[in-house]
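Sample 3 of the quickstart, ligand zinc ion:
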Amino acid sequence: MKVLIFLLIIFVTACISAAVICFLRTLLMPTRKSDYRPEFTERGMEKERAEQYARKLSAMVCYDTTSYPFSDQHPEQLQVERFLGYHKVLEELFPLVHRHLEKVEISGSLLYCWKGRASDQPIVLMGHQDVVPVEGASWGSVPGYKASEGETDQTREDKTPPYIPAETALRPKPDQAEPVQEDGDEKTNVSDNSEQSAPGSDGGWIRPPFSGEIADGRVWGRGSVDTKCSCMAFFQAVEELLREGFVPAQDVYLSSSCTEEWGGPGCQAIIDELGRRGVRPWLVCDEGGGIYTDPMPGIRGNFAMIGVGEKGRANVRFVARGKGGHASTPQKNSPIARLAAFVCDVEKHSPFRSSMEPPTRAMLEALAPSASFPIRLILQNLWLFRRPIELVTPRINGQAAAMLGTTITFTMASGSDAVNVFPQEATLGANMRFVHHQDMKESLEIISRIASRYGLETEVVQGAACTGKVDFKGRAFRYIEETVEKTFPGCVTSPYILTAATDAAFYDAVCDNCIRFAPVIYGPEEKKGIHGVNEALPYDCLPGAVDFFKNLVIGLEGQEELSRMPGT
Ligand SMILES: [Zn+2]
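Result:
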């Protein structure tokens, strides 16, 4: 008994000491505001610049560059022709770029080469030309997808749902809110990133999606945020530097595919072209991260979230088979009952391991000084709270679950065609996102093992493993941070793992430093607009975006020496 009391006293003393240490550490550690705001004075130059850039972005948005997987309905040739038209817009907006840079056009995708004084550490500035359809459908076709055995390109395409053309998508029929596959028994809608709800009868757009209207301080329309803004910014940065007669220290490439939104072949074709020229980029800067407003609960301000890797993803179908029959004679363990039990099991007890990977830990530590006190108390004492965070937060917060582990979200279900008939086959659709510590293969094995316990078959419709993982302590990441600090004073930087897919994933094979960072400000409204309705970008952030790319190119001077130093 005495021993028990003694142990209890030790335990309580340890708890109190830990609490006091945490409290004192938090009190003593400096706090930091991330208070960067665009300077946007009514009379100042910035306003004039911002309006000039807004007009350029507007002209780019006005040209509909919706892309679709190639099919009879959307033949490649027609789409390429459309992009050739868009290239004329670019030529008009950025004449010096088109006069001085070597341009290569590959089936609508673009590569520009700006010769620098050296070619040994070239950089690539990236952004895609294409946009998702107005309704926000996307297809879950993801870079790096490997067909499962026996699956051909044709069968893979067959699983891709058809798309509603932009013009008709403006006024969808009420039952046409989500595009679904038409071929009978395979009603697979594999939408990826289309978290937005379907628009109403007017499409939900308060301004026509390809109007490019400039109103209320924003440029409105599909592509304004994703991602014609960053394309405009790097084209404009090069245009202005050319006007000044600037010659970059290293070769600079501009890379812009026209098939990003469905993981098509455009980006790979550009990389093949670079490969033929023997070019291996030192740094790639694509979309993906950005300057995020209020990135987490309890953390306020604009933070530069610099993407260093992407979660993997898969669209998975679970199939339960039954004998069919009339509903008047009930059966036990029916297909729908098994699917329901499976969903409840997985939702109640996540089978995936929750773990704080180094970039996630670095992100939390970077954001911590800017957090409110209770959040800071936890984030600045990860030596104590790391494990509780890993164990508890995924159960109560979806964002935490996505950061710390593989996730699965059940999104679709189908059963019998009539209410009084047992289904011979019932299906469930799910979207999975993998983390680096439990990647696609392991996560799929876990989920299919559980599914088989309920008599379900597991089919992977589409999938891609995690990509990238830039060394966030390396020279290239530091260079991006320095450029952010120079361009956006007061903006805190942090590494960040994306849950969405970008074309940069293609570049991971040929470049160790594929950074995902578009230098524009994404508030909650802008994030909602990506692949959703009423996409619009406040244009006061455009001068900063142009300056970021200018600084990125100008700062290459001296980078080659630094990167050759030991330990960098
Ligand atoms: Zn995009």
